[in-house]
Amino acid sequence: MKIVTRDKWFEVRHCYDGISLIHEPYIRPFYRCNLWHIQGRDRDVLLDSGSGLVSLREQLPWLTEKPLLAVASHCHFDHIAGHHEFSERLVHPAEADILAHPDGANTLSTAFVGDDMFDAHPDCPLCYAEYQVKAAPATGFVEDGDVLDLGNRVLQVLHTPGHSPGGISLWEASTETLFSGDIIYDGPLIEDAYHSNLDDYAASLERLRRLPVRTVHGGHFDSFSGERLRGMIDGWFKAHG
């Protein structure tokens, strides 16, 4: 398999209004987490931290030029394996134990990490049998209704369980922008993980359907419009009877 130098492992796309997408282009799309860097006047948020195969802080040192909150949308391996690199780590209490004590089962890494995940490997030793997410105990919690004040912008925490019990989304009402994590994105959804719950899924999607969303930045795949979101949610309910 092709080997890629570590300085090429991440790709950064500056979207607009202080929002950037960071991802790992050599991880195939189904497994590739979107890391959202949301810049504020006083501090920034990094929503999710990727596979942990290559150091974010070494390759993207500008991430911590300002105080940074590393927020977990949920605690599957592809979203939290870089969290240990950051000093401020926030998670919903329902998944705090996973962040503090990750293993192959509770992060889903045993089920998914393998050759099928990659188009190329980074230029550092990679052994799937030894892959593990490093412990990154939370320094704080985020619960429904909490607000992350970045100085000139505010992100509201929405508890959106279903994909996992501690799943959250971030809602910026002033720009009608939703960062949805894995509760919904424009690709095949995972509804059958060991701690997924379809009743919770339905309640979370109903809640998001009521928001005046203009833009959605999901945990995987491309961003999409609020109109697309509402159509996807309607389709989900139709498919689930």
Give a short synopsis of this structure:
This protein is α/β, with parallel strands linked by helices. The chain has helices at residues 56-59, 77-80, 96-100, 109-112, 198-210, 226-239, and strands at residues 3-4, 11-16, 19-23, 35-39, 44-47, 68-71, 89-91, 121-122, 140-141, 147-149, 154-159, 168-172, 177-181, 215-218, 224-225. Helix 5 runs antiparallel to helix 6.
Protein described:
With 241 residues, the chain is of the alpha/beta class. The protein has one domain: Ribonuclease Z/Hydroxyacylglutathione hydrolase-like (Metallo-beta-lactamase, Chain A, 4-Layer Sandwich). Helices cover 18% and strands 24% of the residues. The protein has 6 helices and 15 strands. The radius of gyration is 17 Å and the shape is globular. The N and C termini lie far apart (43 Å).
